[in-house]
Amino acid sequence: MITPVPKVGPNAINPLSKLPAELLLIIRFYLPSPEGRYFSAISCLTRINTRLRQIVIGTADLWTPFGISGAEHFFNHARLCIQRSGTLPLTIQLDIHTSRQNSDLGDRFCDVLHPIVSRIRVLNAYITTYAGLNIVRSVLGSLEMSTLEEMDLDYDGVFHGGPNWAITTPGGGTTLKTFTLTGLYPIDSNLSNLRSLTLGSGASWEWSIALIHTLVVGSHSLETLVFIGGGSTFDVEDDVMESSLPCPPLLSLGMEDGISARFATMVLLALDAPNLESVQVTTPTDTYETSLGGFTGNKS
After folding, report:
1. Contact predicate 209/241, CB 8 Å
2. For 218-251, how does the pLDDT look when each residue is reduced to its tens digit (9 = 90+)?
3. Contact 75/83 with Cβ under 8 angstroms?
4. How far apart are CA 227 and CA 235, in angstroms?
5. Phi/psi-derived region of residue 110, left when phi > 0, alpha when psi is between -120 and 50, beta in every other case
6. pTM
7. Which of 50, 119, 183, 238 maximizes the CB count within 10 A of its CB?
């Protein structure tokens, strides 16, 4: 038997108005955000009813993560987030897909970000074109982000135009604690305070052991090192390998999603990490797990 839904008169109290603010804010976790989690649908909450609008606008941390892409409405949303987030630290994502070599997108990004550069704690950039890569280079070179703690740079172009995949990190990366790189290599970097490093393979990019060596040898605080194959197999170039990958503070090592068996073998043989506590390696066909006591023999 189906119970009919009672009719609600025009003067009836909205049931949402009776809910506590904490419960109302849980709704945001169920909002669709089709353009990525940093392109938030939080503004939709301001249109449900007056009380929820007041709560959302007055809750500054809801507005701290936001993304900017090429369309003007993303810039408008970013300015709104900057205003409503007060003075809280910000998490920002740049999505760049333009193929225009003379695009003014870099200048537009800097115009928005420069006034709040001291509030940027996390910066992510997803790039699909070589023109987009040059835009990110100009932004990173123009903004002195002295409070930046986490950065994720993902160059996912199917055709990596141009011979140079190098990129410069703000301030040399001295403030970074977490760094994720896909299809790019940092130059002139000082990663002495880095605690977590994730390296991903690009569509036509392979890490060499020599490049990995230059990153870990200067990361004196590195505790977590992860390699991710992603869209292409994570392999290693046929170059002269360093005798070791010295990483005394390293506690955790991970390899996943398309790691070649050759790469996994070379890294495990080269790694010099006396304090290593856990290792998880997933090759295209096998998974190995180990803990403080060495390889446990678990294989699936």
Report:
1. yes
2. 899 999 999 987 655 565 555 455 468 899 999 9
3. no
4. 10
5. alpha
6. 0.81
7. 183
